[in-house]
Amino acid sequence: MAFFVIGLGIILAQKLYNKFLYNSSQANLTAVERTWINYREDVLEVCKESDIAPEYLLALIALECSGVKEIPSRFESHVFVKLQDVRSGTMPNFESITTHDIQSSSDDALKNLASSWGPFQLMGYQCFYLDIKLKDLRGQKAIYYGTKWIENAYGKSLTKKRYKDAFHLHNTGKPYPKFGPPRTHSRRYVPNGLKLMKEFKAMLAHENSQPE
């Protein structure tokens, strides 16, 4: 038994050490470099079945999670309060989520629904629209399901190449204002996204121009 415990401890220590080495090796990389290394293959794969430009998805990932693989969730307390109100029946619905959908959910479950997850930082409650488990928003198919959500939520803007609207829609749920400043959490969110798109587009073009 003692040997088993020691062996298990060694395995866990090795995993933690490998994780430390991985994180350390990427610590000095830019968000563009990390996104390219960690997500390029998954994005290109999902774009084979999508009309969304891969440079948009890559730029969005760089904006939302800086291209890291170990992505912490972001809790939104105001969303949590609204979900509590829906669960109790004092609020009829929130983002089309009804009391029936979450009446048996614990506070911990609601906190997960009120947090953003994965490389696109989608709110947990979006799993209802995709008919998936919340864990799928941050799992191995996070890029696939995230892209599906993007297509459903504002795919028309991307088809028309209205990227200014698309970035604003992703962050706020509304197109870029016709008048006044953007409503994003940072005024630089949209311009930074457009700049990142150009960088990734150039990188993809350079990659495609290389002989096999």
Architecture overview:
The protein folds into two domains: 29-71 and 119-209; 77-113, no CATH class. 61% of the residues lie in helices and 5% in strands. The chain is mainly alpha-helical and 212 residues long. Residues 2-22 have low confidence and may be disordered. The radius of gyration is 20 Å and the shape is globular. It starts with a helix and ends with a helix.
Features:
212 residues; 2 domains; 3-stranded antiparallel β-sheet; disordered N terminus
Number of helices: 10
The major beta sheet can be summarized as: 3 strands, antiparallel
Question: What is the H/E order?
Answer: HHHEHEEHHEEHHHH
The level of helicity is 55-70%
Instruction: Tell me the strand percentage band.
Output: 5-15%
Strand order of the largest sheet: 1-4-5
Q: In terms of quaternary structure, what is this?
A: single chain
Mean pLDDT: 90
The radius of gyration is: 20 Å
As residue ranges, the low-confidence spans are 2-22
Distance between the termini: 53 Å
Broad structural category: mainly alpha
Number of domains: 2
Shape call: globular
What's the β-strand tally? 5
